[in-house]
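ok trying again, last paste got cut off:
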Amino acid sequence: MAEASSTAAGLETITLGAGCFWCVEAVYQRVVGVESVESGYMGGIVNNPSYGQICTGETGHAEVIQLKYKPSKVSPTDLLEIFFKMHDPTTKNRQGADVGTQYRSAIFYHSEEQKQAAEEVIAAVQPKFGSKIVTEVTAASDFFVADKGHQDYYSRNKSSNGYCRLVIHPKLSKVKHDKYKSPGVMSKVLGALSS
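nice, full thing came through this time. structure:
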């Protein structure tokens, strides 16, 4: 298991997969206490895979985001409650129209505290779903950063990209949590654009 990342700034790291990393990144960029969000890949058998390799489904990697967060401001439990509100954890290797092992629901924990939080949150939210939660809970392994074009995707493309308007924007509007900063006015503007 990768060690919990602690720095002089008191940051910790957790890695999450919940479908296309563009969606997940956009949600967690709005969470109080999250200091950085980086899109990439984890959980596979190939070193330094390309996006093209990931899309074949043959490397075993999931599209993930790696968060650095301040545990004094947001807990692993908070982060995981948001995780289960922003995607469907009951569909194996799929989120909406995105299908393949790279789109699986996965929590890659970096500490025993995160592992315990994952198990507790899954037990707490399971009754809210009609089907069994299939989210993988696995120790973090090597993280491979996705190319620059995949970083900060929603912020750079929200007004000009159909995927942003039709897929990412509804996810941003759906999350309700006291640690989540709602997209607010931009939400109304983009909602009108997608109508």
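cool. The first strand starts at residue 12 and ends at 18. Residues 185-195 have pLDDT under 50 and may be disordered.
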